[in-house]
Every structure is written in C-alpha cells, then in structure tokens.
Specification:
Layout (H helix, E strand, L loop, with lengths): L2 H10 L3 E6 L3 E6 L2 E6 L8 E4 L2 H7 L5 E3 L10 E4 L7 H18 L2 H7 L4
Antiparallel strand pairs: 1-2, 2-3, 3-4, 4-6, 5-6
Length: 119
C-alpha cells in the first residue's frame, strides 16, 4: 500500500480528520483520537494502527510487523507494518478499519452522537 492509498482509505471512514505531525507522518483521527499513522520509516512505507490485545500478541511476532515504536513501549497495543512480507493491502485495510472501530468504541456516547456515529 502506498501513502496515497492509505490516506484515501482512511479518508473514507466516517468523521475522520487528517493532520501531518510527528516529523511528517500522516496521522488519522476520529473524535480527536489517533487510529492510524502513515510514516516514521525511511526505506519504505510504514503503517501503524491500534490492535486488540489478541491481535497484538499474534501480529507482533509476524515478519514485517513489530510493536509500534514509541506507542507500544508505553504499554499500548499498537502495531507497525514496516517491512516485507508484512500484511497484504486487504489485510492492512481490515486492521485499519478495526483500529478505527476500537477508537470509536472508546469514545463517549455523547462524542459519538456529536460525530454522527452509531452509539
């Protein structure tokens, strides 16, 4: 997946916002909370996303995936896809969508209602 494809996909998810921060990374948020980051790797595109505890335990051992720098060291269950073989584009889109869902699920009912999201 390219950064352009990453940004296009994340932009299709409801009530998202995009900022460039942290050294030029594409950061996607919903309700002001980060759910996906594209960047932080020099050699090839790298994508970072929140994962469930089970997915985190499985994915962190896969080739091309690792606990996300800075985030996982703080006890957060974030994975970075940074090298081959990593994830297919379809798998990455599914994990990005799940990350979005996890973050939306952590928002208050009031915030979800403000954003027009299911409560």
């Amino acid at each position: 997946m390219t950064y352009e494809e990453f940004n296009a996909f994340c932009g299709t998810l409801p009530a998202t916002s995009h900022v460039v921060q942290w050294g030029g990374a594409d950061v996607w948020k919903v309700g002001g909370k980060v759910f996906a980051i594209g960047g932080w790797h020099q050699d090839r595109p790298a994508f970072t996303f929140k994962a469930s505890a089970l997915a985190y335990d499985i994915l962190k051992e896969q080739p091309g995936l690792r606990p996300a720098p800075y985030l996982a060291s703080r006890g957060l269950t974030w994975i970075q896809c940074y090298a081959g073989p990593g994830l297919t584009d379809e798998e990455l889109r599914a994990y990005l969508r799940r990350s979005y869902d996890l973050v939306v699920g952590g928002l208050t009912k009031r915030k979800r209602a403000e954003l027009g999201l299911k409560c």
